[in-house]
Amino acid sequence: MLEIPRDKSLDSTLALFLDPYEFISKRCGRYNADIFETRLLLQKTICMTGPEAAELFYQSDRFVRQDATPGRIQKTLFGQGGVQGLDDEAHRHRKHMFMSIMTPESINNLKELTAYWLQVYAGKWATMERVVLYDELHEILTRAVCTWAGVPLEDSEVYRRTAQLTALFDYAGSIGPKHWWSRIARKQSESWAEKIIEKIRAEQFSPPEHSAAHIIATHRDLNGKLLPLHVAAVELLNILRPTVAVSVFITFAAYSLYKYQDCQEKLCADSKYLEPFAQEVRRFYPFFPSVLAKTRQDFQWKGYHFPQGRR
To answer: Where are the alpha helices (DSSP H) in 202-292?
Structure first.
């Protein structure tokens, strides 16, 4: 049996925070392997990279999501009780709820709403000396996704809700004041979402039946019960937050068009170039540095031993 290479650091948590996107790949290169073991938050953790590792990671009979994500990420980015922490049939049932929202017609509606708000804001930008695209996109996508999801949003609260939703992903992995602002934003956002769910269930507010807000508020679990109020709020935010986070990709795409002028010409000349261009932006500018799980049971892979319960 092969021994998994071990990182020499006592704990690699700080190193991961300082270099989240290349932490694993650099050390795999150092140990000349696609796998190594280290300690993160003082817990033994196995890190892997490469296509074979990715294929292994998504074998649900070997890994579970429950309790895999550190508490600081659950209390900021994901929320507690959401689909990211479920396994097996419970996960598939909850995932089906989300997929029922993502019909071609519904997605096209979101695209149209986003395009509308882009045009509105573009008119404002023409009068500004300096535009920070990333910040502007947060507001645009917040407006678009709330309308699309059936979530009421007054003009007077756009800035506040945008700041809260942005903090959930922008500062989730931060250390210090930014992280604590992300935790505060999580509590405030969940309170807001809970009130919306309550009003829908009490028939005080009636969003379209095909909207995310209505589907999540009326969704029933495997036992035929409505989701707990807090969980429903977390799942509603699991629609709003990731959509606003697309601002990251859009900013990368805009930067790519600025840096690589030939891409602009190709996009103007051939609409078929749009898909490969978008995929290349995703590949070249990765958004999420890593994913987490725990081993469901002992097993061996490529001669390495994976003990049960290991991250």
So the answer is: 212-218, 229-245, 247-259, 261-269, 274-284
